[in-house]
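Q: Hi! First time doing this. I have a protein sequence and I read that you can turn it into a structure. Is that right? Here it is:
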Amino acid sequence: MINGNTVEPVTAVLYQSGFVGPTGTSQYNNPLRIYPTQGNLSVTGNINAPLIQLNGVGTTPVANPSRVIFDGRVNQVGVGDLIVTNISTGNGANTSTFQFINSSNGNRIQFVNIKGSTTSLTSGVIHFSTSTGGNGNDNNVIDNNNISSETTGRPVNVIYSFGSGGARDNTSVIISNNNIFNFFNPGLSSQALNIRANSNGWTISGNSFYETTNFTSTSNVEYAVIRFNNTSGVNFNVNGNYMSGNDRLGIGTWNKTGGNNTFYGLYIILANTNPASNSITANIIRGFNWVNSGAADWTGIRLQHGVVLLGGVLPINGNLIGSTAESGSITQFHLLFHTKYSWYLCIERHLSSYNWL
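A: Yes, that's right. Below is the predicted 3D structure, encoded as structure tokens:
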């Protein structure tokens, strides 16, 4: 339980129950539930490393594995209240607010207000890292959280995964029903989700990605909401997400000015296997006013490599880019000309059914 505000001077490491360390043995019930007992509490740090690290949690004993549930609701009831923040803008390889490492399995973070500002290229506000034993950081759930940047700066990656090879990849992770907002870094190429090698079988569903401010870029960098860069990636399901507007569920307009910035709603490099095991369905990308200083493109979905089911056999499965009800849902303004349109690019091998432009 969390009974008061805390400022962490170093990484708070939570090992699996039964772990023997230099200061004693980690011992707790299964699952371990961490939640606030009163409102307006926070866990804060300024650490060029993880703020909270789940290290091997869920690996032993096999017959009764330990699990951790972070629940941001007061006494696990009502709406999310707890704030967990790493204000560091450091670019250390592991700088993050939450990190899963060394086969941390079956854990859950829910109803937490999570903030971070790491500029690391190899980490994120939430970082799924590597493993030296076990099966990888598998079966973890990130659900119903508010995830955003801290006022100290914006991150490069909100959620980042790069697992270990073989049997130790990061598998069966669920990212669901989160509000993920204000994440593009003005001066650095950035994305909300950056899923890289040795990561498979993720479900990304029901999330809202949006920008609440009038965002101004300061450099000619590339942005993507969801980026897959994993030529062996299989069994991904991206379904029912909003990439849109200035509020959850695609409300309002995402306004951007400043540099000459390429945009992708989804940028996809996944396995080139047939039949397709990866699916991109029922996502909505709309509500953009994207002003560039040059001729950089705005692209809804780009399939750069792989076999992916885009849409489905029923209209309800189709991805919607723009609006079927009104014109101008996506407005792109170049320095030399003004257009209202959406781009939908599919190259390499793919399977496509119902989609809406």
